[in-house]
Design a protein that fits this description.
Order of helices and strands of chain B: EEEHHHHHEEHHHHHHEEEHHHHH
CATH superfamily of one domain in chain D: NADH:ubiquinone oxidoreductase Nqo5 subunit
CATH class of the largest domain in chain B: Mainly Alpha
Shape of chain D: elongated
Helix content of chain D: 10-25%
Strand content of chain D: 25-35%
Strand order of the largest sheet of chain D: 1-2-5-4-3
CATH superfamily of the largest domain in chain B: Cytochrome-c3 Hydrogenase, chain B
Chains: A alpha/beta, B alpha+beta, C mainly alpha, D alpha/beta
Number of strands of chain B: 8
Number of strands of chain D: 7
Low-confidence stretches of chain B: 358-393
Mean pLDDT of chain D: 79
Distance between the termini of chain B: 14 Å
Oligomer: heterotetramer
Structural class of chain D: alpha/beta
Number of helices of chain B: 16
């Protein structure tokens, strides 16, 4: 890698900005994500800032199972983010739907709608675990930069692409 | 200026939870509001019918992560009432302790969010710093920070180690001092004063008419607190006062919540110092006889009621949840008309909306205001009149 | 020939654009660190603002559908250029070599440009939050600009010149104007806070109401340049106030050789701008956001009155001295 | 909110409401009155007027398998809960709206309409609001006989960005 690529890689690692999207969660994950920016955990130390506009952010944190009503809104927010963009699904619900799996108004985990890069287990995960997930996401970002995109992971994963497209 | 339609939500940084307002504004002044809030509807009530009592409790805990203890306590006390089960006193005291800690964490969280809504991030950081102390206590008692998983039908699942009590009391002393400091700050900081006072005003008559509950009602001078009016879980033994005032605005609601922080500290102190000895849970029967219970609970946001119907099985026939936020929504729609665009976040935040509670089954009616006293046209006329007066035209 | 090279060096490297960018990033760091410390947090590391800029430069650059691509791209650059030009007239290591009679007016004009460009940006991006934010930007401009200009008029009247360097020289001969015109100094600080749209005057970009106001649709390098511009405006604005009210980088005695004088002057400049930033940052951390109508009341009732009062006092004093 | 002349006690509620139907007192501060569908407005007016009930606690809807039941629970300064229970037949799921008597009821009625399919006559705005916009018409998830049809789309479709 040449110097400018290394500089960019360093900058991306140092400055991940996040947007939190509640896709139908019970708030527990949300308050733990917000708790991560407050004094005890203070993620600004690592350059993590919570941004309001998805246009400004690098990482989308999806909390909760995706309800039928939120599905297309979640997709819209994801589409508004500039590349390179990453998605973290928090909690058991974000991964699979958790206790809400199979309920009539729940679609399932976040990966039914957007491609998820990192899953955080827990109900809800502690703020430390959420910070750890961001760090894992940054490592993934580095790997992707080496491979020149996310495709290498997509091929490796046996599961079909997670986007559900209906006219 | 022409009317502008400002969509707020379902994703919006001011709202930690999804809700959609279509705000029709005349310049900066709100002419009317259309609300839509069921983005979190998951269908928990249907799921509750198909699981037995033991498995419903964790599900109800996840109606809302902020008031998880409220929902479970309300449910288990309803089921216990149907079964005619007596819960050991120690278990009841522990429920009270967790409930009041939850109220403290919720009110501190609210204070931070309200400060954030008016751009006062320093206060937001401070209150959330202190909230961590409450979280620590909760973690010490229940093992979890947010979804405590401490309730079950018949009592609580974990006993409290006596050696933990002195540490908890010490933390409460610190929190008490901080609470006083927030009260001082609220009284003297100029921007907070001008953003909270006179905003989102609800008179006592309006508060009654629109069926408000909790701190929203108490800030309008209504002495309505389920802990006193319909005591449950041994609240009749706890020393506390119902905090009310007559401001009726966001400032009043803030004062009520800070007052309740103090009262909660008093209750927790009393409960921990007089913790009865004995078991923490009784063994419940497997099935509940046929019964119909309206179980009420004073959640941090106000009166929470569960309508429970049992029918000689180990499942509920029907569980209907009415959350405090739902009761308070009508008042929001009314108190926002004629206010400024900039006041939306803080007025909405002032009822402390818990949308995941509410949208489990919810509603809001864009015709709310119409069902009450004003028609759309009257609302609009009211908005314009307000604008004129403000500008001195 | 060497003179021209020196001027180019001055404009582009030190204390021109390059220095301005680096110092702006440093001030952003100091600002965020002060906020974090008041909030009981650790705060970002020193290189954080730089990393933010590099990352944003490398991000995808989205132009929303139906928006004029070139126009939207030009706005941040225009704002950047305006502030960079304004900074050339702000004394950093001594009197600016570009100084001329009337440069104060030019600086004030150039510092207004980013605000107006933000308003334009709000309109062209076809986003409702940006549009409302743009309207608020320009409403706010009308509120603070008059008191701000009046406050800066005070030093000019006292010194009898529209030249920043002459006002500095006047202060060297007399007293610094922050002592002579304390009301004007305070009004100027409040005006600067409002100009830079910092709490309690961050009404146009109020996150909880308007997502990010005019900034909502900015992505990638446009956002990077615009953020940088606002930080640069902070440097230029505080440098200007330092020059007009605190005597700028001038030292009370002449230092030999010239480079030593420049160095000490530079040190004085850094200290004074940091001092101003400290005040601005503490105000930002210690207050909530006011509403636009409340700002309107405050601006016209108190701020403008105070500024006019200050001007009257200055006129009386000057009249006495000259009579 | 003025206190009525005589304090409101369960006994007084029984006395005031006896002509509506069966009155029971399941607990110290709960009174339950069975009211027929046509007289629900009269019942509420009586409760509001004579028993000083000014706060609606809950409107619960129950599907007991054969009929729908609506439980209107009200309270007042006396803190006694008065519940009016109304049975609504399944094949004719209509009941008159009470949004004008109790402003918050407008919300509860819309919610019940969406999830149970009970029509509130006279409600000004009985639109969908809980379920997603593309939820199929005529499907009421909280009815006991409702099952999710695996071959049917219940909404939540996501379209790719252009």
């Amino acid at each position: 890698m040449n110097l400018s690529q290394r500089l960019v890689g360093w900058a991306r690692r140092k400055s991940p900005w996040i947007t939190v999207f509640n896709s139908g969660s019970c708030n527990a994950c949300d308050i733990e994500v917000i708790a991560a920016i407050t004094p005890r955990f203070d993620v600004e130390r690592f350059g993590i800032l919570a941004k309001g506009s998805p246009r400004h952010s690098d990482i989308l944190i999806v909390t909760g199972p995706v309800t039928l009503k939120q599905a297309k809104r979640l997709r819209m927010i994801y589409d508004q983010m500039p590349e390179p963009k990453y998605v973290i699904a928090t909690g058991a619900c974000g991964a699979t739907g958790g206790v809400f799996q199979g309920l009539y108004h729940v679609l399932g985990g976040a990966d039914r709608v957007v491609p998820v890069d990192v899953y955080v287990a827990g109900c809800p995960p502690r703020p430390d675990e959420i910070i750890d997930a961001v760090v894992k996401c940054l490592e993934l970002m580095d790997e992707d930069a080496k491979h020149g995109g996310k495709e290498w992971r997509m091929k490796a994963a046996a599961a079909p692409p997670p986007v559900e497209v209906t006219a | 200026m022409p009317e502008v339609v400002v969509p707020i939500g379902p994703y919006h940084p001011a709202l930690k939870e999804p809700v959609n307002f279509r705000v029709i504004a005349d310049g900066e002044v709100i002419v009317r509001l259309e609300l839509d809030i069921a983005y979190n509807h998951r269908g928990i009530e249907k799921a509750a019918e198909s699981r037995d009592f033991i498995r419903v409790v964790p599900l109800l805990e996840r109606i809302c992560g902020i008031c998880s203890h409220s929902h479970t306590t309300n449910f288990v006390k309803g089921i216990e009432e149907a079964m005619g089960l007596t819960v050991p006193r120690r278990g009841q005291y522990l429920r009270v302790v967790v409930a009041e800690l939850e109220r403290m964490h919720s009110h501190l969280l609210w204070l931070g969010v309200a400060a954030h809504e008016i751009g006062f991030n320093t206060l937001f950081m401070w209150t959330w710093r202190d909230r961590e102390a409450v979280q620590d206590i909760l973690e010490e008692i229940s093992g979890n920070r947010v979804n405590y998983a401490i309730n079950e039908v018949g009592g609580v699942r974990r006993d409290l180690r006596p050696s933990a009590i002195p540490g908890i009391l010490k933390r409460l002393d610190v929190l008490e001092k901080r609470t006083e400091r927030y009260l001082e700050l609220l009284r003297h900081e100029p921007t907070t004063a001008i953003r909270f006072q006179g905003v989102g005003r609800l008179s006592r008559a309006q508060a009654l008419e629109y069926g408000t509950v909790g701190p929203t009602a108490r800030a309008s001078g209504i002495d309505y607190d389920i802990r006193k009016d319909d005591p449950y879980v041994l609240y009749e033994e706890m020393p506390f006062a119902v905090v009310t005032n007559g401001h009726g605005d966001v400032y009043g609601r803030t004062l009520v919540r800070i007052g309740e922080l103090r009262e909660s500290i008093r209750i927790i102190r009393h409960a921990l110092e007089n913790l009865p000895q004995g078991a923490v849970r009784a063994t419940p029967p497997r099935v509940a006889p046929r019964a119909e219970i309206l179980s009420r609970y004073e959640a941090p946001r106000g009166e929470l009621s569960h309508f429970i119907r049992t029918n000689n099985t180990d499942r509920v026939e029907r569980l209907d949840v009415r959350t405090p936020t739902l009761a308070n929504w009508t008042s929001v729609a009314v108190s926002l008309v004629g206010q400024h665009l900039a006041d939306i976040p803080v007025v909405v935040a002032a009822i402390d909306p818990c949308l995941s509670c509410t949208s489990r089954i919810t509603v809001v009616d864009e015709g709310l205001a119409r069902t009450s006293v004003l028609t759309w046209d009257e609302l609009r006329a009211h908005g314009i009149r307000f604008y004129r007066e403000k500008e001195g035209l | 020939m060497t003179e021209v090279w020196l001027l180019v060096l001055y404009a582009m490297v030190f204390p021109g654009v390059l220095f301005l960018v680096i110092y702006a990033l440093f001030l952003q760091y100091v600002d965020r660190k002060i906020a974090a410390r008041t909030q009981n947090r650790v705060g970002p590391p020193l290189v954080q603002p730089f990393a933010d800029v590099v990352k944003l430069l490398s991000k995808e650059d989205i132009t929303p559908e139906g928006v004029d691509r070139r126009g939207m791209r030009a706005i941040p650059l225009l704002a950047f250029a305006a502030v960079a030009t304004a900074f050339l007239y702000v004394p950093v290591i001594g009197t600016s070599p570009f100084a001329f009679e009337g440069d104060l007016v030019v600086v004030l004009y150039l510092l207004t440009l980013p605000t107006i460009l933000l308003f334009v940006l709000g309109w062209v991006t076809r986003n409702i939050f940006a549009a409302v934010g743009g309207t608020r930007t320009v409403t706010q401009l009308f509120i603070y600009e008059v008191p701000f200009f009046l406050a800066l008029l005070g030093p000019a009247i006292a010194a009898g010149s529209w030249s920043i360097s002459e006002i500095m020289a006047w202060q060297g001969a007399n007293l610094i104007l922050a002592i002579l015109q304390p009301i004007g100094f305070v009004v100027a600080l409040i005006g600067l806070q409002a100009k830079l749209e910092r709490t309690p005057f961050d009404i146009p970009e109020a996150e909880t109401e308007l997502v990010a106001g005019p900034w909502t649709e900015l992505t990638g390098r446009k956002l990077a340049v615009m953020r940088l511009t606002m930080d640069m405006a902070l440097v230029a604005g505080s440098g200007l106030i330092a020059a007009l009210f605190l005597g700028g980088p001038a030292t009370p005695w002449v230092l030999e050789p010239a480079w030593l004088g420049g160095l000490v002057g530079f040190g004085v400049f850094v200290l004074k701008t940091l001092g101003i930033l400290l005040i601005l940052a503490l105000v930002r951390a210690g207050m909530g956001r006011v509403r636009i109508d409340q700002l309107n009341d405050f601006g016209w009732k108190y701020l403008a009155t105070a500024a006019i009062l200050q001007i009257l006092i200055v006129l009386l004093m000057v009249g006495e001295v000259w009579a | 909110m003025t206190e009525p002349a005589a304090p409101v006690t369960p006994a007084r509620v029984v006395e005031a409401m006896a002509d509506f139907g069966l009155v029971t007192t399941p607990r110290r501060n709960r009174v339950r009155i069975v009211v027929s569908r046509d007289r629900i407005r009269d019942g509420l007016l009586r409760v509001q007027g004579q028993l000083a009930c000014d706060h609606v606690v809950h409107i619960a809807a129950v599907d007991n398998g054969s009929t729908f039941e609506l439980h209107y629970s009200l309270t007042g300064p006396h803190r006694l809960i008065v519940t009016l229970a109304v049975a609504v037949p399944r094949d004719d799921a209509r009941v008159v709206s009470v949004h004008d008597l109790l402003p918050p009821a407008g919300i509860y009625e819309r919610q019940i309409h969406d999830l149970f399919g009970i029509v509130f006559e006279g409600h000004p705005n009985l639109k969908r609001l809980i379920l997603t916009e593309d939820w199929p018409e005529g499907e009421y998830p909280l009815r006991k006989d409702w099952k999710m049809d695996p071959n049917r789309s219940y909404g939540g479709a996501v379209t790719e960005a252009k």
